[in-house]
Structures are given as C-alpha cells and as structure tokens.
Specification:
Rossmann fold, 7-stranded mixed beta sheet, 6-stranded antiparallel barrel, Elongation Factor Tu (Ef-tu), domain 3, binds flavin-adenine dinucleotide, single chain, alpha/beta, 2 domains
Length: 275
C-alpha cells in the first residue's frame, strides 16, 4: 500500500523463528519484524512477554531481510520468561527506539563488557561497511560467560581482538579498561564505542576524556514507556530512552555527577551505583 507507514509505537506481535543458547545465562532470540530490520545499531526494542512484563532489549542483529534479534541475559522474571521461549512462541515488539551509535570512517575501538557486546556487533558490521579499522576489546568475568566471540572473529582478524577475563580463564587477565588505557597511550584513535556495566562505562569515559578521544557510550536506566513520556529513565537532563541510549562524551559532560554514580530505581528512588 503506497504511503503506508507502520508507527514504531504500535505493538507488533511476532513469532520467534529460532533461539541460540550463547552460554548458560544468555540466549539470542531471532524473529521477523520489518521495522526492527531497519533499525540502527544501538537502538532498542520494548519487548512484551505476554502475561509477564515489557522490557527494553537492544537489537543484536539487524537483517538480513526482515530478520532481527535480541540477546538476553537472564537476571529476573521477564528475562527468565524470554529464556523459556521456543521457536513459534509469540512476543510483542515496539520500537526501534532511541538514538543509536553513529558509525564513522576511521580508526576506532569497540569496548564491550559482558552482554554489552550484543549491540556492538551490528555496529561492527556497519563500521566494516564504512571501511573503518576496528580494534575490539571484549571483557567477561570468566571463560563460561563469553558470548559473540565466534561472530566477531568472523569479521575481525584475531590480531584486532583482545579478550579479557577477570579470573584469567581466557585471554588477558583483568578488565577491558586496562587494555584500553594501553591502546590510547600507544596509538591515536578517532572514536571509542562502548557498552557494558555503568562502572566500566564511566572508566571508559574518564580515559577517553584524559586522552582526548571522542566517545559514544550506550547507557541503561529503568525504562518504562520507551518513548520519552514517563521520565523513569532520567539521567540528569536526559531521558535515556529518547536522548540515548547512546550518548557522546560531550553530552555526558553535563551529567558527570550522576553518570556512573547514581541511578533511579523502579520506584524513582535515587540509588548509588556500585563500582
Ligand atoms: C536501553 C536498554 C537496552 C538493554 N539491552 C539489553 C540487552 O540487549 N540484553 C539484556 O540482557 N539486557 C538488556 N537490558 C537490560 C534489561 O532490560 C533488563 O535486564 C531486564 O529488563 C530485566 O528484567 P527482569 O524482569 O528479568 O529482571 P528484574 O528482576 O525485574 O530486574 C533485574 C534488574 O534489571 C533492571 N531492569 C528491570 N526492568 C527494567 C526495565 N524495564 N528497564 C531497564 N532495566 C530494567 C534493573 O536494574 C533490575 O535491578 C537493556 C536495558 C536498557 C535500558
């Protein structure tokens, strides 16, 4: 039908086409949805699990065709319900929402913590299309937490990937920011992109500020409406769902007191972030 546009705010019901177990706590759910397949890396969906809840999930693959995916770490009721789903089960989707990563042509570093690697994967594909030189630093607590490494090695030579584990069971013992510090000290980069726990993101931000390298970070807050109305995902003057979830270093300058230090919980209470 010519001129017909589907509104991202209207929930679409779709069936899961396949499920991949990435590790004991992480699964990727594939589905068909035209709007999701046209999303940008870093954008998120509001995913409704019938009878349970509706939660934000980043796009972990975009295309080919109308296909897309989310990669879910099991932490509570909604994510456990998503983990119990099989091909053919139904979920509701709104979005894609928010401001995603802006790819650039240049020398860039991707920094991922845990399941934070999921939204960086479609970004990596986009950066390769731009002809960028990409170095990836991916950190996990332990070997059994590793996700997406196989997919990344398909796109990047192994010499351009460093894996860290906190317990030293794989790759370099330590955390991603140890490696990032050395990279920024040794070489000049045009952009750092990162996604992971907020304490890690704050350290990435502080390092890029010190070495004067532009940065884009994907942040999380408690998201309810996903469309900038309810204010439950505020970070200072920003709403994560509408102004983010991806923010530049310049934007974060204005919320330095709060970023990495405080967040709002489900009831709107201001809580310290553990680092
Ligand atoms: C923009 C964005 C993108 C995200 N992308 C991913 C992703 O790709 N993969 C992934 O595994 N997780 C992602 N998350 C986190 C995911 O939304 C939460 O883990 C999930 O909502 C937890 O729900 P639950 O019922 O299983 O757990 P609960 O027991 O309800 O909560 C566990 C913790 O999850 C967080 N949480 C709960 N509900 C929400 C909510 N509505 N919005 C934000 N945080 C919430 C809270 O910090 C809470 O303490 C993303 C969050 C945001 C904001």
């Amino acid at each position: 039908m010519s001129g017909f546009r589907i509104d991202v705010n209207v929930m679409r019901i779709t069936r899961i086409t396949s499920v991949v177990q990435e590790n004991p706590e992480v699964k990727t759910l594939y589905f068909e949805d035209e709007l999701s397949s046209k999303g940008e890396p870093g954008q998120f969906l509001m995913v409704w699990i019938p009878g349970v809840d509706e939660v934000p999930m980043s796009l972990s693959s975009i295309g080919p065709g109308n296909s897309a995916s989310i990669t879910v770490r099991r932490v509570g009721e909604a994510t456990s319900a998503l983990h119990s789903m099989k091909a053919g089960d139904r979920i509701g989707i709104r979005g894609p929402y928010g401001v995603g990563f802006k790819p650039i042509a240049g020398r860039v570093v991707l920094v991922a913590g845990g399941v934070g690697v999921a939204p960086l994967y479609p970004l990596l594909i986009r950066l390769k299309d731009y002809g960028s030189e990409v170095y990836a630093i991916i950190g996990f607590k332990s070997r059994e937490d590793m996700v997406f490494l196989d997919r990344i090695i398909e796109v990047l030579p192994q010499s351009m990937v460093t894996v860290t584990t906190e317990d030293g069971s794989y790759g370099v013992r330590g955390v991603v920011t140890d490696v990032l510090r050395v990279k920024l000290e040794e070489e000049r980069y045009d952009m750092v992109y990162a996604c992971g726990p907020e304490g890690m993101l704050r350290e990435v931000y502080d390092l890029t500020k010190m070495y004067r390298v532009p940065v884009q970070l994907s942040l999380e807050r408690y998201i309810r409406c996903g469309m900038g109305v309810c204010g439950s995902c505020c970070l200072g003057e920003y709403r994560i769902c509408r102004d983010g979830p991806v923010f530049s270093g310049e934007q974060l300058l204005k919320v330095e007191d709060e970023f990495g230090n405080f967040k709002l919980d489900r009831a709107g209470r201001r809580l310290p972030i553990k680092r």
